[in-house]
Amino acid sequence: MTEKTKGLSLLREPFPEHQISYLPKGGVKLAYVGHAALTDRLLDADPAWQWEPLSISPHGLPVMDDLGGMWIKLTVCNVTRLGYGHAGSKTGGDAIKEVIGDALRNAAMRFGAALDLWHKGDLHVEEVDYIASIESSPTIETLKTHFAAAWKMSAASEHKALKAAYDKRTQELTKEPS
User: Fold this and answer.
1) CA 59, CA 114: separation in Å to the nearest integer?
2) Which of 29, 76, 113, 146 could cysteine-pair with 11, CB 3.0–4.6 Å?
3) What is the reported pTM?
4) What CATH superfamily classification does 3-118 receive?
């Protein structure tokens, strides 16, 4: 594995629990990785990582957009990705730090850093084989339960195959023994 590949792979590793913070928002706690923990991970992945604003004013300062946010370029292991940061309702110097930290987290997510925390569900759940669960249902009640769940969770394009498997298994389970 090359140094570049190793560094980029390191960004995808989950953060340990002690580096994850929680922010109460809308009655739930949102998990996030703070600026320091992310910086530590970036340094582990590539000691020469860097970020720069996407746009610089004639005065040499980063340009903020009309919403108070800023686009950045984050370069890690000679790979560059864009990110966007916004300070919400913060103002002054705290707002600038928040914009930078938010932009770094956003851009690092494009490399896979803390991706599991950005996702609302379980990012790497094994796919369920709904047809197999229907075909192996031991009773009519279990079959009905499996079919209802499969119908709800699957794409419409899979419904015809699910119905066929359901009908076949129903016949097998209700068939009179000879």
Assistant:
1) 35
2) 113
3) 0.66
4) DNA repair protein Rad52/59/22 (3.30.390.80)
